[in-house]
Amino acid sequence: PGDEVTTGQRIADPTARQCMQAVLDRYQTRPAAVGEGPPPGTRNPEPGTRSLTHMKRGWGLSVVCFGLGYGDGFPDASRARVRLADDGFVEIYTGGVEYGQGLLTVMSQIAAEELGVPLAQTRIIWADTEKTHESGSSSASRQTYFTGNAVKLAAGELREQILDVAGAFLRIHPHEIEIRDGIARNRYDPNRRIALHELAAAGRQRGYSLEATALFKPRTVCEEYETGQSPRAFITYLFGAHLAEVLVDTETGEVRVERHIACHDVGKAVNPQLVDGQIAGGLAQGIGMALMEEVVMREGRMLNPGFTDYILPTIRDVPPVETIILEHDDPGGPFGAHGVGEPPLIGAVPAILSAIADAIGRFPCRTPCTPERVWELIHRQ
């Protein structure tokens, strides 16, 4: 805590050490299963003690520090609109793009939590150039933090309008009203209530818009061009750690990832299942980058443009992923969240390469570590 990163920015509360300790604890507390080979410290037994002495086992550890968002003083912002429709549904408008990472689910969850409605009572309208505002790109692991904050701010403003309308309708102070399961009710007399679809009609009769738009635009500081230093190059940082266990066939150079443990601090896991999925997906991409994926170019032409020659990991290449979700509230994130995004890929590759080096005694310095390259590395004079 308090250390500087390369830009000179001081990180007040890093969780890299906690992530690293979590993966070590997980590895040490789960005994090796039958057929998994010897424990650490006995990976290369003497000839005769095992039938497959050409199989070498190795372990690798990596730690990730990742600056979230565009950073470096580049203007980064997200806008969102939240509206109470006439049928009582909450509509969330965002320009953010969903491509499988779970953005729409998480934005709906944030709005539902802020407004006190069931998730099933939300509708999301996304990436519509006519209806939605700019939310920035789905990159840099930024959408949960930036668009999540914009949605939360807009939903909070809409909530205040709803409480005002409910207060007038129920003839009580808005502070005595709670919204739960899509119904505004008196905290002390639950029988005094109004459903949101009734409230929508009453509110519009009174001139309320029953919608709100919010902008979330935190400030970063551009670096000094002479030194590259900035006291706030990134709005926040993500931390994680990976532990990989590999088995290397020294006769063929083939590498198999047998076990992989990943811990990431996500601030608050708004949707733990989606976090698990992003970590598993990042590991799959990391295995591809570390062991098989490569664009082969010759004289400006790509020689492997199809999936016959450009090799992707399959279910046979990816072990069961052991994920550990560390929740350490980010004070600037929506409900303490800051997402996960790219760090699982970033952490997977060096852990796997370090495990290969541990197994064969030489560190690979080129990816992917194809069997041919690993064999040449083992037998290089």
Description:
With about 375 residues, this protein is an alpha+beta fold. The protein is built from 7 helices and 13 strands. The strands form 4 sheets. A 4-stranded mixed beta sheet has the order 1-9-10-13, sandwiched between helices. Strands 4-3-2-8 form a 4-stranded mixed beta sheet. The chain is elongated. The two termini are about 45 Å apart. The model is unreliable at about 35-50 (pLDDT under 50).
Task: Write a concise synopsis of the structure shown.
The protein has 381 residues and is α+β, with helices and mostly antiparallel strands. The protein is built from seven helices and 13 strands. It is elongated, with a radius of gyration of 26 Å.
Key descriptive features of the protein:
elongated, 7 helices, alpha+beta, 381 residues, 4-stranded mixed β-sheet
Distance between the termini: 44 Å
Task: Describe the main β-sheet briefly.
Answer: 4 strands, mixed
Tally of alpha and pi helices: 7
Tell me the helix content. Answer: 25-40%
List the helices and strands and how they pair.
Layout: H1 16-29, E1 55-67, E2 78-84, E3 90-94, H2 103-115, E4 122-126, H3 143-170, E5 177-180, E6 183-186, E7 193-195, H4 196-205, E8 211-216, E9 237-249, E10 255-265, H5 272-292, E11 297-298, E12 301-302, E13 321-326, H6 343-360, H7 371-379
Parallel strand pairs: 3-4, 10-13
Antiparallel strand pairs: 1-9, 2-3, 2-8, 5-6, 6-7, 9-10, 11-12
Helix pairs in contact: 2-3, 3-4, 5-6
